[in-house]
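User: Reviewer 2 asked us to show a designed sequence for the structure in our supplementary figure. I'm pasting the structure tokens here. Could you produce the per-position amino acids so we can include them in the response letter?
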């Protein structure tokens, strides 16, 4: 990692660390430094993306993943190697079964997170994104519509990002039926989930607003996929 390249927009809360950056106005030097820490496999994956802005966001997300890992472990950012144990599986850090990682990038924002001793997932979307009613209906559990007789306190954009963060942490991603994840309509809390999640009460959910984006983080007990 070159001198002067550091985490941006970071929030540190044990037992995990996350960092996020808006990407639209990043200086070319910063983007180059983030790309410089990637390995050939990451670069090849990013190069397959067709849209230049998507490639930019992916470079930042993967670079942040390495910087967050470096901050959490004290190792050089270039030293990490990743693998998956099945097609489409969640990337894992080689040689470190106690460390879990997740990243996200979308429409001008990128973020990454790392945890020790638990599963972690992160997702981000623009606060301005409109979630269509049919999408809300497709991902909502029945109990999420009302909080003590009043409308749910969870905005559609938060419902989407929280459930996606949970699915990333568990390892199924968008292959999971989001209706099987039930959030409390009165608080940011998981109250029901498939068996692969373990005890729903053991999951910690957070929402952050950063630079016009909402960032959702899900941290839960180890195990699973």
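Assistant: Here is a per-position design you can include in the supplement:
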């Amino acid at each position: 990692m070159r001198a002067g390249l550091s985490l941006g927009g970071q929030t540190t809360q044990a037992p995990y660390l996350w960092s996020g950056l808006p990407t639209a106005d990043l200086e070319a030097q910063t983007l180059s430094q983030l790309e410089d820490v990637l390995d050939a496999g990451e670069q090849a994956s990013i190069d397959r993306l067709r849209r230049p802005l998507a490639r930019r966001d992916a470079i930042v997300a993967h670079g942040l993943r390495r910087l967050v890992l470096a901050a959490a472990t004290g190792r050089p950012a270039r030293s990490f190697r990743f693998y998956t144990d099945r097609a489409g599986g969640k990337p894992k850090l080689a040689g470190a079964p106690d460390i879990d990682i997740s990243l996200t990038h979308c429409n001008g924002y990128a973020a990454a997170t790392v945890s020790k001793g638990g599963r972690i997932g992160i997702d981000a979307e623009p606060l301005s994104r409109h979630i269509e009613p049919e999408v809300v209906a497709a991902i909502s559990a029945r109990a999420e519509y009302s909080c003590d007789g009043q409308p749910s306190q969870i905005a559609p954009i938060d419902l989407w990002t929280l459930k996606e963060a949970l699915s990333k942490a568990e390892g199924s991603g968008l292959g999971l039926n989001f209706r099987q994840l039930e959030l409390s309509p009165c608080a940011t809390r998981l109250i029901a989930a498939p068996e692969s999640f373990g005890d729903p009460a053991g999951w910690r959910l957070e929402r952050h607003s950063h630079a016009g984006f909402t960032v959702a983080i899900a941290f839960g007990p180890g195990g699973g996929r």
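For the response letter, you might also mention the following. The chain has two domains: 9-116, 119-220. The radius of gyration is 17 Å.
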